[in-house]
Amino acid sequence: MNGILVINHFLTGGKYNELHSHLVTAAEKMNIDLEIKTNLQLSYEENISCDFVLFWDKDINLARRLENSGLPVFNSADAIEKCDDKARTYIELEGIVPQPKTFISPKCYFQSDMGEFVDNALDVLGFPVVFKECFGSFGAQVWLCKNKEEVLSHVSEKPFILQKFISESAGKDKRLEIVGGKCVCAVSRENANDFRSNVTNGGTMTPCTPTQDEISSAVKACEKLGLTFGGVDILENGDICEVNSNAHIINIMNAAGVDIAPLIFDEIKKQLGV
């Protein structure tokens, strides 16, 4: 069995290399020949042949091209797109799982006056409020704003959401890893120096046992978003904060001792009928 691991050409460094090597090694142990290719390489390659694609990137146009050529792609382009856009994630999961109250900025074509939208959102959300650009990773492009001026300082032509700040979850959440509709691992994340719990921003992880409600929400979220595998971030009050289509599984493995890579390949084989 052979597959292609798609990675981003422009994300380089030790932690990425470690992840990619781990996925290739895990695949090899399961008699899968997994070849690494970057989105740059594949942007001009044609007649690509393999049994499946493990798409560890957010280059949605490339994922769709590969799907259109008949290749099974995990996660799918649709699933990645729904997770990559925080506004889209909120819309997809609205009424399905608990989420913080959220307002989605109206579309604009260049930097515009968002004062009216911000005023109306803040009347409901209060302060402090979480400002998130719709596209971003590793906790970047996310700010906790204490007044309207801070909110407006982050406004540009880029789409954004304003979200209620869950004070009891400041610097704390849980990451649940879901594979094939099952919770295979969970960790508590905590950051004493930042309201964001991301490890990239200095947070730490410890193994935890999620509640049945948390597991149920995480599984429902992944199912609704169409994820074969995903990392679901749940706040202390049970609200789902974000869903990741390609979470960094090395951090989870180091913290909890659970290697998710072979579980992903098992699920891919199951879906392919191998």
Concise synopsis of the structure shown:
By secondary structure, this protein is α+β, with helices and mostly antiparallel strands. The chain has helices spanning 14-29, 39-44, 60-68, 77-84, 86-93, 115-125, 148-153, 212-225, 249-256, 261-272; strands at 2-7, 33-38, 52-55, 73-74, 102-104, 129-133, 142-145, 160-164, 172-179, 182-190, 204-207, 229-234, 240-244.
Labels describing this entry:
alpha+beta, five-stranded antiparallel beta sheet, four-stranded parallel beta sheet, 10 helices
Task: Describe the SSE topology.
Elements: E1 2-7, H1 14-29, E2 33-38, H2 39-44, E3 52-55, H3 60-68, E4 73-74, H4 77-84, H5 86-93, E5 102-104, H6 115-125, E6 129-133, E7 142-145, H7 148-153, E8 160-164, E9 172-179, E10 182-190, E11 204-207, H8 212-225, E12 229-234, E13 240-244, H9 249-256, H10 261-272
Parallel strand pairs: 1-2, 1-3, 3-4
Antiparallel strand pairs: 5-8, 6-7, 6-8, 9-10, 9-12, 10-11, 12-13
